[in-house]
Specification:
Layout (H helix, E strand, L loop, with lengths): L1 H12 L4 H7 L13 E10 L4 E9 L8 H12 L6 E8 L5 E9 L2 H7 L2 H7 L9 H11 L5 H9 L2
Length: 162
């Protein structure tokens, strides 16, 4: 554990504001839970082009099967002083034996930036977009029509005959 902490401190020293340095060693206990949950972030990166901050999120949850994404978003929002609707967490995998999960977190500067850059499926999960309801047969027919063309004509063939 001490070796891991030293590694994290090395990452912090390479660059970052005071807020980022404080956030790198996050250890928060969730109130009202029988077992404590610890959230740590690492590989923190500020991505100005996509108007977001991105990080790997480690969740230590002994005695619990897992922690909900909503709960994680609320805790990250509190730590990074932002609204939880601007936070997207995904890709969590629990280590063999349980007790620790690792995933990815994105904190957008605004909701508009999130809607602009996030993939549609994650916006649907978040409740910010509607899922497309296209019949399976129509999708297959459109795909097979597009097979007959190449280049820009392929896009026209698949979109024109909806």
């Amino acid at each position: 554990k001490a070796e891991q902490r030293r590694h994290t401190e090395g990452v912090v020293r390479r660059g970052g504001t005071k807020e980022e340095v404080e956030a790198e060693e996050i250890e928060r206990n969730l109130e009202g839970e029988a077992d404590s949950v610890t959230i740590r972030t690492r590989k923190f990166l500020t991505n100005r082009l996509l108007q977001r901050r991105q990080m790997v999120v480690d969740v230590i949850h002994p005695g619990r099967a897992n922690v909900s994404k909503k709960e994680l978003r609320e805790k990250l929002a509190k730590v990074y002083k932002t609204e939880d609707e601007n936070i997207f967490v995904f890709g969590f995998q629990t280590q063999f034996g349980g007790g620790k999960s690792t995933g990815f977190g994105l904190i957008y500067d605004s909701l508009d930036a999130a809607k602009k850059f996030e993939p549609k499926h994650r916006l649907v999960r978040h409740g910010l977009a509607e899922a497309q309801k296209t019949a399976r047969k129509q999708r297959k027919e459109r795909k097979n029509r597009a097979k007959k063309f190449r280049g820009t004509k392929k896009a026209k063939a698949s979109s024109a005959k909806k």
